[in-house]
Design goal:
This protein is of the alpha+beta class. It has two domains: 116 residues, no CATH class; 243 residues, no CATH class. Helix content is 41%, strand content 20%. The protein is built from eleven helices and eight strands. Strands 1, 2, 3, 4, 5, 6, 7 and 8 form an eight-stranded antiparallel sheet that branches. A hairpin with a 4-residue loop joins β2 and β3. It is elongated. 4% of the residues are buried. The N terminus is likely disordered. Its main location: endoplasmic reticulum. Keywords: Endoplasmic reticulum, Lipid transport, Lipid-binding, Membrane, Transmembrane, Transmembrane helix, Transport. InterPro entries: Mmm1 (IPR027537), MMM1_dom (IPR019411), SMP_LBD (IPR031468). One of its GO terms (molecular function) is lipid binding.
Length: 434
Amino acid sequence: MFNSSLSNSTILDALKGDNSSGDLVSLDDYLTKILPLHFQNYFLEDLEAFRQHTPSEYIDGLIKSLKAGKLSEFPLNTNFIKQFEHLKSLSSGSTFSSLSFTQGLIIGQVSVIIIFALFMRFFIFSEGSSRHKNPPVIAVNTNNSKIMSNVLKRGGKNRSEIKSSDPSIDDNQNEMTIQINNILQKTYYDVNTHKHESLDWFNVLIAQIIQQFRDEAYNKNNILNSLNLFMQNNSTNLPDYLDTIKVTELDIGDDFPIFSNCRIKKEKRKLEAKIDIDLIDRLSLGIETKLLLNYPKPGFMALPISLTVAIIRFQGCLTVSLTKGDEFVQTTSQNEDKKTDDEDNDQEDNSYFLMFSFSPEYKFEFDTESLIGARSKLENIPRIRSLIEYQIKKWFVERCVEPRFQFIKLPNIWPRSKNTREEKHNEDDTAKTN
């Protein structure tokens, strides 16, 4: 009366057209083809068992009642009712389970797609402000100093007994003012009317120094070796999700800075030389690394990242002055100050320094290239470019932009025998002189 139960070979034969290669069965094929065949097989087995335990007269009477529409008058068997309810609950439960799993899978995939689309839209492909404003200049604290905030102190060690008629000016400041006026008078330099100087000779001198530096870098690879050594020593400090950083490009340029419009400005306690500087060159550094995904296991996935940052132009006003060590206030923390020897501090206080800084109206131009991915690559992402450029400017402001400055201790230029040298002559030159 009923067909026999389906065998496992019959169920597997349903996917021969789609799975002839012997690969694993996909989820869609399982839900649409194999799972219905399993339910049909199970239903037919239960129905066959019910037919074997139920008299044929009872089944024939049930069929006649169904055809006549008088099922309510027919006395149903208790086993038949239980079997029917069992099949009904099994079918509804399986349908609900399959629908819940399918709905959850679809909702999860849609959520991941939406999150990935939002990330790509607002982080990767958002227009970063390539012309970022310069980082804010460090605020000046008027409570610590009236000249250069917490960087320079007001007073110094007195070395003269000259008294001033103005009680608001102390003896040391009066002495420095007199010295500055004497220097300007004896060098015939008027800060108000003197023309700006071109500094051509200085450009030639600086160009020779830079050229020597580049020759040593090319011949000895000292810069590249220093960078690689620095990367190796600090590899342990890198986060777990970042692989080793390798230097792929290093360009130290082939042009030279041009200094111009030098003018001397008179301050209360010192003379300052303000010089315009303009550099058009390419100074680049390229690195590559990998972004590691350590879930569910370490090194599960790696995303290659390649960055190249180049400075192509710099414009600014350089301020240079000579000063003494006792006029400085260190910007380091108290813990770092305790590590400094007192004798070294006393020697530096009595030494002269060349101080230089840049005005806040400087200008940086960058050429940043980024590449993320191995196969599907993302190139020159605006957000990454703006973040890198902002961090470089921030580093520059915290060290070299007023009121912060850098200073270089001037060496002792007094003639000494150990510093005496003479030019080395070749053998041909010696023979000619003889």
